[in-house]
Amino acid sequence: HVQLVESGGGSVQAGGSLRLSCAVSGYRHCVGWFRQVPGKAREGVASISSPVGTTYYRDDSLKGRFTISRDSARNTVYLQMNSLKPEDTAVYYCMAYGEYKYWGQGTQVTVS
């Protein structure tokens, strides 16, 4: 049974930081973080491969503020988000993907 559980969302002021966690059970593969705001398509934020740990960011502006990392022992992927902006407000989802795709339930991030 594959399960992804996100945590770490919340409300912060612009310029603040949050660290999102995605605990994965039952599956070891690439993991990506996505985000979605109402009325818009879900968009990729960052991803990390397994087992090498190659990282990818949607664009340079995110790469300079967000960092994706993995704790292999805990099978948990993190998204450290610094210098948050109001436009980062969204529901953040993690997805484990390989032959199949598995999604977490999402965690709300609000930046005011």
Order of helices and strands: EEEEEEHEEEEE
| Fraction of residues in helix | under 10%
What kind of oligomer do you see? single chain
Instruction: Please compute the radius of gyration using only Cα atoms.
Output: 13 Å
**pLDDT averaged over residues:** 94
**Tally of contiguous helical segments:** 1
- Uncertain runs are none
Q: What's the number of extended β-strand segments? A: 11
- Strand fraction band? over 45%
How would you describe this structure to a colleague?
This protein is 4% helix and 54% strand. With 112 residues, it is mainly beta. The strands form two sheets. Strands 2, 4, 5, 6, 9, 10 and 11 form a seven-stranded mixed beta sheet that branches. Strands 1-3-8-7 form a four-stranded antiparallel beta sheet, with no helix packed on it. The protein is globular, with a radius of gyration of 13 Å.
Secondary structure layout:
Layout: E1 3-7, E2 10-12, E3 18-25, E4 30-36, E5 43-48, E6 55-57, H1 60-63, E7 66-71, E8 76-81, E9 90-97, E10 101-103, E11 107-111
Tags for this entry?
112 residues; 7-stranded mixed β-sheet; 4-stranded antiparallel β-sheet; globular; 1 helix; mainly beta
Question: In brief, what are we looking at here?
Answer:
With 112 residues, the protein is mainly β. The protein has one helix at residues 60-63, and strands at residues 3-7, 10-12, 18-25, 30-36, 43-48, 55-57, 66-71, 76-81, 90-97, 101-103, 107-111.
